[in-house]
Amino acid sequence: MENRILLIKDGLLLQHPYIVLMVLLLSLIIMDPFEMSPVGGHDFRPVKNEIASYKQVMESWLWDNRSRLGQGNLEFKDDIFGPESLEFDALGRGPYAGLADGRIVRWMGEDVGWETFALVTPTWSEEVCAKGVDSTTYKQWKMESKCGRPLGLRFDKKSGNLYIADAYYGLLVVGPEGGIATPLVTHDVDGNPILFANDLDIHTNGSIFFTDTSKKYNRVDHFFILLEGETSGRLLRYDPPTKTVHVVLEGLAFPNGLQFSKDQSFLLFTETTNCRIMKYFLKGPKTGTTEVVINLPGFPDNVRINEKGEFWVAIDCCRTRAQEVFVHNPWIRSVYFRLPLPMRYLARFVGMRMYTMISLVNEEGEILDVLEDKNGDVMKLVSEVKEENGKLWIGTVAHNHIATLPYPLEAPNL
């Protein structure tokens, strides 16, 4: 009987040799022995993610058909490199920005220009780290762990201290006069190095909440967090009096920007992989719990509050139908991203075309305004929006400029 089964199998294989070839080819792709795929050399283990329905989000979203963000102004072109986060001190000076070359710089006016305000490591050197306009390219990536990559910035308005979330050096602080920043948190509660500190905000009691985007990948490999959908990200809290760090939330999918509400009864944080803003309650009957505030059409970065208590979120838009299939079927991602093709082609095949969108929402997740730059006239990728003195200041981790736009916008002449 066993021999008969073998003969039948052999006969089928002889009649359909293409099946053998397909099996061999699929096996070769999955194993990727020559590491020719975009994920070659990585322990790539895609997982299923929790994301809202593509149709539901796209049909209910408020779109900016006039692409009004494209009316903004380019500032400091090729004079500032990858300004992820923008901040102003208590005296209104600034903006301050963390750059791709590892520096925190401050704008001192037309006569002086940009000056280096702080560094995250005493080993920083101009020879090794200062790549100019190349700072936002792959040429800087191999130097990032040495030079630092400051991301989130926040001033303590009372002390004048600037707190910094650096992707490689963790949570740091520098005094009002600048200089070399002092490390506060470089390891988690288990003694493991923090791989990807991303953003922070300061509570009135002095505690500092910050996001640790992944326990598996650092900033250079951040794209693998999205592709894999891994959920090792955390929200952490540092308590200055005891100099201890605590895990507030874990199991997060690319936690990114965060922002306290005006009364600090809750904080918002973005989950980039899941395309949404989450709320974590700090007061009231829901204390310690989370809920979805709003599902987004793209991938959010930082979130910042304005004087009215509303929230600006920076979004790299947009999701695609193919992404929804990938999210719910990890095995497809496991095969697709092991194809021996550059990532730009794989992204193009599934319809990915990223452009900049910013949105203003209230604490209930109601959309108050949406501004888009579909043609990339001002910015192709966005990381933060800060409303200051009647103007939007827009940062980007990927480009060598800042964008500004008067806000509120004037009503068009009809």
Can you give a write-up of this model?
This protein has 414 residues and is of the alpha+beta class. It has a single domain, classed as Neuraminidase. It has ten helices and 25 strands. The protein has helices at residues 2-15, 17-31, 54-60, 126-129, 138-141, 144-147, 222-228, 321-328, 330-336, 343-349, and strands at residues 73-75, 86-87, 96-98, 103-107, 114-119, 150-155, 162-166, 170-174, 179-180, 182-185, 197-202, 208-212, 233-239, 244-252, 255-260, 266-271, 276-281, 290-295, 298-305, 311-317, 355-361, 367-373, 384-388, 391-395, 402-406. The strands form six sheets. The chain has a five-stranded mixed sheet, with no helix packed on it. Strands 1-25-24-23 form a four-stranded antiparallel sheet, with no helix packed on it. A four-stranded antiparallel sheet has the order 6-7-8-10, with no helix packed on it. α1 (2-15) packs across α2 (17-31) and α8 packs across α9. It is globular, with a radius of gyration of 23 Å. The chain starts with a helix and ends in an 8-residue tail after the last strand. Residues 2-9 have low confidence and may be disordered.
In short:
Its main location: other. This protein has 414 residues and is of the alpha+beta class.
Write the layout of secondary structure elements.
Blueprint: H1 2-15, H2 17-31, H3 54-60, E1 73-75, E2 86-87, E3 96-98, E4 103-107, E5 114-119, H4 126-129, H5 138-141, H6 144-147, E6 150-155, E7 162-166, E8 170-174, E9 179-180, E10 182-185, E11 197-202, E12 208-212, H7 222-228, E13 233-239, E14 244-252, E15 255-260, E16 266-271, E17 276-281, E18 290-295, E19 298-305, E20 311-317, H8 321-328, H9 330-336, H10 343-349, E21 355-361, E22 367-373, E23 384-388, E24 391-395, E25 402-406
